[in-house]
Design goal:
Distance between the termini: 22 Å
Structural class: alpha/beta
Low-confidence stretches: none
Order of helices and strands: EHEHHEHEH
Shape: globular
Number of strands: 4
Oligomer: single chain
Largest sheet: 4 strands, parallel
Strand content: 5-15%
Number of helices: 5
Bound molecules: 4-nitrophenyl phosphate
Strand order of the largest sheet: 2-1-3-4
Helix content: 25-40%
Length: 168
């Protein structure tokens, strides 16, 4: 068995955007039949929501599209994450800056740091906007970007692993 590709999705609180992307990516990978190739997780820059399930609104919008993220629990990003994961992917540019600062405290960082949407050819450089202080349309926008971005990331990684014609 080859080692799985380990991916960590990071946002500010780990209760809205990154758990949504974690759930969507995992479901898409399983649906495509390549689930065992990936290990995914999510974390937040802040520790203030650690241990909490995803925000009710995020859970509801995910459930409406067939994703159950209710069992996920928030945790804070730590320096060791840059050693454990192959990819540490930020939901927005501010989170990416914070990640770069924290990575300096890692002894042997090996993760590739980027924006989550950098693997989507028409969304490269774009943020997944924070929906926390907004309402339903903002959460729907997160769902749209999570689905589009995850598919693009999975295709990119499968191609890199030598899998062509993934059917996804
Ligand atoms: P997230 O949203 O980063 O997508 O999980 C937020 C959740 C909580 C807070 C900010 C953003 N907060 O300030 O508590």
């Amino acid at each position: 068995m080859t080692e799985p590709v380990r991916i960590l999705f990071v946002c500010l609180g780990n209760i809205c955007r990154s758990p949504t992307v974690e759930g969507v990516f995992r479901a898409q990978a399983e649906k495509s039949g390549w689930g065992s190739l990936f290990e995914v997780d999510s974390a937040g820059i802040l520790g203030s929501h650690a241990g909490e399930p995803p925000d009710r609104r995020a859970q509801r919008h995910a459930r409406e599209r067939g994703y159950d993220i209710s069992s996920l629990r928030a945790r804070q990003l730590g320096p060791h994450d840059f050693e454990r994961f192959d990819y540490v992917l930020a939901m927005d540019a501010t989170v990416l800056d914070d990640m770069r600062r924290l990575q300096k405290f890692s002894r042997r960082p090996r993760a590739e740091l980027a924006l989550f949407l950098d693997y989507h050819e028409s969304l490269v450089g774009k943020d997944v906007p924070d929906p926390y202080y907004s309402d339903a349309p903002a959460f729907e926008n997160v769902m749209d970007l999570a689905e589009e971005g995850s598919l693009a990331l999975m295709r990119h990684l499968l191609k890199k692993q030598g899998v062509f014609g993934c059917g996804c």
